[in-house]
Amino acid sequence: MDRYLVFGHPVRHSKSPFIHTLFARQTQQELEYGLAEPAIDEFAHALRTFFDQGGKGCNVTVPFKEQAFTLVDRLSPRAKRAGAVNTIKLTDDGVLLGDNTDGAGLVADLKSHGVTLADSRILLLGAGGAARGALAPLLAELPSELVIANRTYAKAQQLAAEFCDLGPVTAQTYEQLAGPFDLVINSTSASLQGELPPLAPALINTDIAIYDMMYGASDTAFISWAKQHGARQTMDGLGMLVEQAAEAFTVWRGIRPGTKQVLRELKRNLGVI
Ligand code: ATR
Q: 273 pLDDT exceeds 80?
């Protein structure tokens, strides 16, 4: 049977095996999908061993995405732009192809929530790896403006400079931000520590859409905060997780699984509904 897995550290709580097993059942694909948690300095060896032993493809998650970028034979254009690889496929001619489906997953999830990106004013919070992966797919949707705000301003500036050939992207400090924005995407890891990016409450209103790439069994700190300040449409990163997985599955198997039912089952599994 064709073998796939996700590399991460820690990875025990990954929902990828659950998601891909449901995709395989739904599309009647024969495959198995497991977990691998190599020591931080043993990822390269573990990756090579997996493919030497007949593995067909893998996902890569924190903290290995940047390392995976350097280990594959070939990169997709979107992986090149993202500077990170979350999906690897062994092609029929034996080439390890590195791809990145995170940004496509974000855009697909935003669209499935009915968020209009064309001609919109988007505020992207954070300038780390998650923001970098989102920028090209977001700009491809032709927003009227995309502003990156980051605690460390220089990192926002650098990202904006790197992506300005793709669309109207600029960097601002949190203090400089002036609304209205149609959509705020939180790509910071602040929620992990229960912290908030230092965003002025005045930027939140009832018409704005709020997206947090993080997720949990209950609202993230950022989503709770945005709701308190009047946001009515809030979305967390669970849908992005399922959509990026669907995109990876499509890369591997050439068949696109449906995501709605799988997202519902994942929510039930996590106790969210
Ligand atoms: P990831 O790959 O998940 O993007 P990362 O590359 O470590 O992780 O980036 C984390 C991002 O969250 C950064 O933009 C970071 O801001 P700095 O560049 O100033 O470090 C941002 N971040 C983390 N904690 C934050 C907090 N409490 N407030 C605001 N931004 C925060």
A: no
